[in-house]
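Final report, closing paragraph on structural work. Over the funding period we assembled a curated collection of sequence-structure pairs, and we close with a single example.
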Amino acid sequence: MLKDVSFGQYYPVDSFVHRLDPRLKLVFLVVFITAIFLAKEFLALGICAGLLLLALIASKIPIGKVVRALRGILFLVLFTAVINLLFYPGDKVYWNAPAVLFEWKFIKITQAGIMFTAFLIARLILLMICTSLLTYTTTPVALTDGFESLMTPLKWIKFPVHALALVMSIALRFIPSLMDETQRIMNAQKARGSSLDTGSLIKRAKAVTAVVIPLLITSFRLGDELGEAMEVRCYVGGNNRTKYKKLRFSWRDLIVFVLGAGLLAGVIVLRFFPVFAL
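Its predicted structure, as stored:
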């Protein structure tokens, strides 16, 4: 299960998407998420899905790897689907059948509920894939450099942009390490006879403490070691620090910028002039 967590993992390969400027990737991610939440019909979501599929193909990331990453939000998707399917009200008819398909006490399954549930699931899946694609195609260093560059205007009001970017970089770097450490602790506890996957909910909760406490101790230890290493190397953050790699826009970034602007404009038009509104 932990291996399916894609956030913070980088997939090293030479592709069109990998060579994009990280600042543009962050801006495009915000635009794409905005378009997903502005969409009010399946046609708009279909346009977002088509563009995302094109990005996946251009990134050369195996589709199976992306699909396996969706297992991390499977419980959230199923829980959201069941709640909306059973309790979403509505009397709109989409096909030749009664508006209310099933009704028992306070449970009511309607055509509107089925359509809204499908729409919500598609939105969650697109949201997960686009955020995973960002971390798959961008190294933590490039991601934090792009974030710091975009937040540069905040330096005018004395906002600690560099410190925030440093915290973000450390957090992203620690995610894979903590995942590996969690898996190692779980394997060690299972080797000692601890049961983490069986028993009642209360027993499982108690068994998790045998994993959480060593993980917290390891996290504090890694943080102390990192702090000491930075002090030994006389690390000093600030505006005087230089960067080994300079961020520059290219023709690839211009193409993606035009696609992002077109996507947002198309979704806004469909929002006010829907073709197949829910």
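Residues 83 and 189 are 36 Å apart (CA to CA). The mean pLDDT is 83. We thank the funder for supporting this effort.
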